[in-house]
Amino acid sequence: MSEEKIKNGKAGEFSNVLDRLGAVRKDLPPTAGRIADFISQHAADVMHMSITELAERTGSSEGSVIGLCQTIGARGFQQVKLSLARELVQPVHFIHEDLTPSDNTAQVIDKIFQSDMQALRDTQSALSVEALAEAVKAIRQAKRVEVFGIGSAATIAEDTHYRLLRIGIPSRVSVDSHVQAIAASLADAQTAVITISHSGSTVETLTATQLAKEAGATTIAVTNFGRSPLLAYSDIVLNTLARETQFRSEAMTSRIAQLAVIDALIACLALSDYDRSVQTLAKTFDVLGSKRI
């Protein structure tokens, strides 16, 4: 089930092969791991190889190569080769760079903004159009929406809840583990649950999502590309693709990517019931306007 959640259906053309391999590497079995390592270390050679040659060089089978390609979201080896060719011929302009003690203020600003922009580009390539459409349908059909987030994801969960209310969708946010567990256990088939977790392995939100799934809710995960325990309890997965480095912790690039996914989700939800959304936005705008001087 985990592999199915990260296959196919990108918002843009298939890309970021090396980042995708890095995201799943630690969870790969030995054979797939050898193939992944070879592709990562010999990318320039791989884009000129046949699938048979790659299988021979890695002591694997053509089926294993295809399986790895599908695990990272490609239809097959040819699509991986085309992506590698684009990446190597036209290198990414916004390089993932970590901060160093010698960086001055201008360099810090440049690195932060470049990394955030790259996270947005990468997330667009990893986000499934079909999955986003399914999430819109599930939320529109639900009588209520529960939003879960812990730690750095809590602020994204709060924002998601606020944005849902602004377009008239009944929503409740839980950023406390006990409240999450209670809300999840009280969910039913008419509930949609949105769980936001960069790692997909945060115990509190993982437990809440499992409880909601078992209670019959439709579960939607906003999580970084790769394999994680959260996928086993998620009906719909909206992937981000944000790389974290020593000084760019989970609270930074991942949140930029998560906000972009939520922004796209809210926009699609609003457009799916345009007239009602416009009326609700106008009404809530007037209410909020009364709070301004």
UniProtKB/TrEMBL annotation:
All copies of domain SIS, residue ranges:
135-275
Entry's InterPro entries? Homeodomain-like_sf, HTH_RpiR, RpiR-like, RpiR-like_SIS, SIS_dom, SIS_dom_sf, WH-like_DNA-bd_sf
Transmembrane regions listed in the UniProt entry: none
Per UniProt, residues of the HTH rpiR-type domain are 15-91
Gene3D superfamilies reported in the protein's UniProt record: Glucose-6-phosphate isomerase like protein, domain 1 (3.40.50.10490), Winged helix-like DNA-binding domain superfamily/Winged helix DNA-binding domain (1.10.10.10)
**Matching Pfam families, A to Z?**
HTH_6, SIS
Q: Which GO biological-process labels does this protein carry?
A: carbohydrate derivative metabolic process
User: From what superkingdom does this record's organism come?
Assistant: Bacteria
Q: Name one GO molecular function term.
A: carbohydrate derivative binding
Identify the keywords attached in UniProt to this record, alphabetized.
DNA-binding, Transcription, Transcription regulation
The protein depicted here goes by the name Transcriptional regulator
